[in-house]
Amino acid sequence: MAEEVDEETPIFAIAAAAELSGMHPQTLRQYDRLGLVVPGRTQGGSRRYSLRHVKQLREVAALSAEGMSLPAISRLLELENENRALRRRIAQLEVRVREELEQRSRVFAAGASGSVVSVRHGTRVRRATEVVLWRPEADDAF
């Protein structure tokens, strides 16, 4: 079974990333200094590029060849990164909402003694003869 490759894992040294992106290693160093494509670093300080970085480098090369300025490319990459982060956050929140809705699908009723009773969804509950109404007294108010 093939495992899915994580695009974010920094695995390529600068020479490999330069070759994969079709650029000179010095260009990658310059882009790093400009904050255009910033790779991860090893404990020793060596640059390590991920598959996403290589894709970004290819995109930078294509946009630059079309005449887009480096500041404009930088802004575009910044917006793409923000978009990716927001999409991840949306996916996380959707999972939380689904979990919350699953939790809320339970139905509760008041038992004859006033206790809370879990009831299967769609089940009718017999009416109790007592109703307890609680109102805060003036002393209980915050």
Automatic annotation (TrEMBL):
Q: What region holds the HTH merR-type domain?
A: 14-79
Q: Which InterPro entries match?
A: DNA-bd_dom_put_sf, MerR-type_HTH_dom, MerR_fam
Gene3D superfamilies the UniProt entry points to:
1.10.1660.10
Task: Note one Pfam family from the annotation.
Answer: MerR_1
According to the lineage, what is the superkingdom?
Bacteria
Signal peptide positions (record): none
Keywords associated with the record = Coiled coil, DNA-binding
Q: Which residues form a coiled coil?
A: 76-103
- Record-linked SMART domains: HTH_MERR
Q: Which NCBIfam families match?
A: HeatShock_HspR (NF047375)
Q: What is this protein called?
A: MerR family transcriptional regulator
Q: Which organism is it from?
A: Microbacterium memoriense
